[in-house]
Amino acid sequence: LNPVSPKFTADLLDTPRTVSIIPQQMIQSTAANTLSDALRLVPGITFGAGEGGSPLADIPYIRGFDAGSDILIDGVRDIGAQTRESFDIDQIDVIKGPSSIYTGRGAAGGSINITTKSPELRNVSQISQGIGTDSYYRTTYDGNYVLGRHTAARIDVMGNRASTPGRNDIKGHRYGVAPSISFGVGTPDRLTVKLYHMYDREVPDSGIPYNYQTGTPERVNRNNFYGLLGRDFRKTQADIGSIHFEHDFNDAWTLHETTRYGRSSYNYIWTSPDDANGNVAHGFVYRYPKTRIGATNEFVQQVDLSGAFDTVGLHHSVAVGLEYEHDMTRVERYAVTAPGGSGLTCNPSLLAAYTCTPLQNPDANQPWLGSYAPSGLPTWTRTTTKSFYAMDTITVSDQWTANLGTRYDNYHTGADTRLKAGTSEWSSVRNIASFWSWQAGLVYKPVENASIYASWATSSSPSGLANGEGDQHVSTSLTSANDLAPQKMRNIELGAKWDLFDDALNLSAALFHARMSNALVQIDASTYALAGVKDVRGFELGWTGKISKQWSMFGGYTHLDPMLHSSGALAASDGNGKMFPNVARNSGTLWTYYAPDDSLRFGLGVYANSKQYGNVLNTLRIQGYARIDAMADYKVSRRLDLQLNLLNLANRRYYTQAYAIAFAQEAPARAAMLTANLHL
Length: 680
Fold this sequence. Notes:
Blueprint: E1 19-23, H1 24-29, H2 35-39, E2 45-47, E3 60-62, E4 65-66, E5 71-73, E6 76-77, E7 89-96, H3 100-103, E8 110-116, E9 124-132, E10 136-148, E11 151-164, E12 167-183, E13 189-202, E14 208-211, E15 216-217, E16 233-248, E17 254-274, E18 284-311, E19 314-332, E20 334-337, H4 348-352, E21 356-358, E22 371-374, E23 379-395, E24 400-418, E25 426-447, E26 450-461, E27 487-500, E28 505-524, E29 527-546, E30 551-566, E31 586-597, E32 600-609, E33 612-613, E34 621-622, E35 625-635, E36 640-647, E37 655-658, E38 663-666, E39 671-679
Parallel strand pairs: 5-8
Antiparallel strand pairs: 1-7, 2-3, 3-4, 5-6, 7-8, 9-10, 9-39, 10-11, 11-12, 12-13, 13-16, 14-15, 14-38, 16-17, 17-18, 18-19, 18-21, 19-23, 20-22, 23-24, 24-25, 25-26, 26-27, 27-28, 28-29, 29-30, 30-31, 31-32, 32-35, 33-34, 35-36, 36-39, 37-38
């Protein structure tokens, strides 16, 4: 397997950085129905809990750094906040370490590139029907049709309805459709048009409140839900259209051009089990409403030219490109009027109005007696980015190659916030930043199927106004954001890769040291400054492929030592020398399959993470865990196969996301799913 991007100028074995690749077969066989499910296959990735300046959406952390705005689809940044499905995914490439060279701004800990399914010159289709515990129903259809000698079309459809195992009130449904058509397949000129639509409505999980004496989630029934079914909801929608054109000048040079327009929106009210005034210690929870109404429109045009040439005895494999991106985000909150009086301290009046609920026995079916309406105080963020990049892999000899790259980004953003509803009073802030990103690597191959490498890479990101949410630190620091320079990241990495058994099994190992300087830290309730330093040292091991014809495995192990050297006056000096929030020091995954014959296969998977802290001071945490999954599939006939997945086989209770205050998100309990795949 190799990364799917023209920006990679060498095969994975000759690329001087850590890249984890999740193929579509792994996504399907592990029953990973969302991007977050699939990313759990990669060690070194944890997940943020949303809020605190971030929406309820995919927020992966790679090597300790937020990568929520560093997700790409078919090589193009997808900045809108959403929860991404897997029904249209063909492959996921996780690039670890600073990777602005590939993605532009951000990418401090790495980036994620999703390759979607494309039409092929063959008539094949599959319909899959899944049923399971906790009212699980899922139907997908993947159909590919040949329309002409060089023309093909494909359509992927998905419908999903389920409750969260062990969290009976957390339920939802979603559907999606992704049609595409390709012209000129197998010719020097190829044009592909893709559309994508997904809609999701669910009851969002309120999580389990912390016990501030122990610093861990309260010991309550795992099914406790502190929200109100009559009030809480989350609706998201994504509509994306793209046109991709490729032209082969000859066998060596190819032009790639992508134009994309997309809109993603979300609308929610969910309950944070608030403990601002010590309610939990007295056996109560305040149902604090967290709200957002947001939409992001994105236009991207990207041109890449890749090819190879020889000069003065050296072979060059190069890629150069231009990118233009314009984003516009509108974010607003609901104004919520809660019944029972003011204040956050639970009392008989708030309990009678159901604004508060008992800690041990909450009732989600209690009526919502308050009201809510849009606040009329939106924030508009408009961002224009212009970029250029160039990369070159230079083959010096059969044993030595060098990898060089640079990228220039010009970033111009502005945010406008209405200060008073129904008036023309606005506050505005502008931020203009330009920066260069660099990459250099040296690869030595002692034998043809093994490589040893050393690399150095950087990334940069303008502070405060960098993400597609549109209001990161804007509402509290409009005046201080004007002069903020980019946050800067650099990484040094030593690694080795080895392809065994005729390239059937790939092994990898890496040592790395990453440092972020000019990191944004909070000085007081309304001021941010570039005063932080974050360090991550660690090592990784990875394995992917077949040990024998019957036995294959996928997984890895990551050890991180993430330290804050300057965390800002708000966290006090006590934050210095502590671990990053949302990072596991040790994490590992292992999926192994055994197929005794061509019709039967068994699989066993283990996910393990050590504890994670939710806040800078490391006083709130979730404990480490190990979860076991299992699967079996059986080929009934040439057209029908059955797949059984057992998730969290031991019914382990654990937490996956630690919020900085108030709560942690609990993982699903044991679940079983049976899927019938019919090949038409």
